[in-house]
Write a structure and sequence with these properties.
Helix content is about 55%, strand content about 10%. It contains 20 helices and six strands. Strands 3-2-1-4-5-6 form a six-stranded parallel β-sheet, with helices on both faces. β5, α7 and β6 form a beta-alpha-beta unit. The mean pLDDT is about 95. Bound molecules: adenosine-5'-triphosphate. Adenosine-5'-triphosphate binds next to α1, β4, α5 and α8.
Length: about 400
């Protein structure tokens, strides 16, 4: 049996890891590849808000999910103290006494091999396998391989693969800037966004894809126009444009669901909707949409609130909440007699526009003989005193 061992911090795991490991499996004819996330890496210091070992393990499992030879191994997470590869290798050797063991690493780790804990013993058991991480590393690899051969009588193998010049460090920086998605498996990216690892913010193109996939076909243009309107309003009223964009993209994500599905989401996300809301899909979609925005797409509290109150409004609304409420109301596709006046107000006096919009809603509800939600009534009362 030929077994590969691929350890790493995987913070986060990326396509560079996957690409190199996949080529190595093929080139070496491996029967099994153990992917071993480190708990406390001896060679690196982790930042305080680093995802836990279990979280990095789960992300690595997602990245390698389609590799049939892959087997995740969590022994370095359960061991106390620094994660020494020699301990892992000895444990694997115990499981597979007759197997040939290959230790996979990139150039940086390979060149430091001699400094690893009990390096001599380690090199006695495994064959090092190295993949370059950047062009021009071939000579350094060959020189060091020669040195290991001479000193430890081991013959390292260099894998010839298409180099992907990416590191987890670079990715962590990109993710906070809504970039880096192309270097990650889709499932890993979704996990990072949902959990808010690395202070990651969703790439807008990805967010639109996710949101539009949840919408009925005819609603998509409305959501696109709401996003554009929200950005214009954010610029006008000096609100963070990206927050307005995010809230607008996500504001209607559950709109196409019926009352039954809405109530199931309330159950799933522990939404305590009042009785007036529970009977009304139009009101429920704001609550369930906000919950999904937060749990699945990592929305911040301000974005959550803007989605949550985009139908009813509420007393003490923030500027972002007002912007999403109004963008939804006045986007260029809307056509009703008062829309021109409302559009004008939205760019000249935000509170007066809110009051006008909410009062129009109250009038419409009264005509239909329906009782308004208390949040709307309170919002109107509050805005009346604000605009006096
Ligand atoms: P960091 O930037 O945090 O140091 P990293 O990108 O080097 O992280 P690790 O989890 O430390 O990722 O790497 C695990 C193993 O994968 C190491 O042996 C490393 O050399 C190798 N490796 C990492 N990135 C690549 C890549 N792009 N191509 C080939 N090998 C890589």
């Amino acid at each position: 049996m030929r077994i590969g061992i691929f350890g790493g911090t995987f913070n986060p795991p990326h396509k560079g890891h996957l690409q190199a490991a996949t080529v190595a499996i093929e080139a070496l004819g491996l029967d099994k590849l153990y992917v071993v996330p480190t708990g406390v890496p001896p060679h690196k210091s982790l930042e305080p808000d680093t995802p836990s070992g279990t979280a990095r393990y789960q992300m690595a499992a997602l990245l390698f999910a389609d590799v049939p030879q892959m087997q995740m191994l969590d022994i370095e997470l359960t061991r106390q103290g620094p994660s020494y590869t020699i301990d892992t290798v000895l444990a694997i050797q115990k499981l597979h006494p007759a197997a040939e063991l290959f230790l996979l690493s990139g150039t940086d780790m390979f060149l430091s091999l001699e400094h690893w804990h009990r390096a001599g013993e380690l090199l006695n058991i495994v064959t090092p396998v190295v993949f370059a991480r950047a062009d021009g590393q071939g000579q350094a690899i060959a020189d060091f391989a020669g040195h290991l051969q001479e000193r430890y009588s081991v013959t390292p193998i260099q894998i010839d693969h298409e180099i992907l010049e990416i590191s987890s460090t670079a990715l962590r920086e990109m993710l906070a800037l809504r970039a880096g998605r192309a270097w990650l498996a889709d499932s890993v990216y979704a996990e990072i966004i949902a959990r808010g690892y690395y202070n990651a913010k969703p790439d807008f193109e990805w967010l639109r894809e996710q949101a539009h996939a949840m919408l009925s076909h005819k609603r998509i243009p409305h959501v696109q126009r709401t996003e554009e309107e929200a950005v214009r309003l954010a610029q006008r009223w000096d609100v963070e444009e990206s927050a307005a964009r995010e809230a607008a993209i996500l504001h209607d994500i559950t709109k196409s669901l019926d009352i039954q599905a809405q109530l199931q989401l309330c159950e799933k996300y522990d939404i305590l909707a009042d009785s007036a809301t529970r009977e009304n899909v139009k009101l429920l979609h704001a609550k369930t949409g906000a919950a999904i925005a937060k749990v699945e797409f990592g929305a911040a509290q301000a974005v959550y609130d803007a989605i949550c109150y985009h139908t009813t409004g509420r007393q003490g609304m923030t500027t972002l909440e007002k912007i999403i409420y109004l963008a939804d109301y006045i986007e260029p596709g809307r056509d009703f007699p008062e829309v021109h006046a409302l559009r004008e107000l939205a760019y000249t006096d935000l509170d007066k526009a809110m009051l006008y919009g909410l009062e129009l809603s109250l009038k419409e509800l009264a005509q239909k003989g329906r009782i308004p939600h208390p949040d709307t009534v309170e919002a109107v009362r509050w805005l009346k005193t604000e605009t006096e």
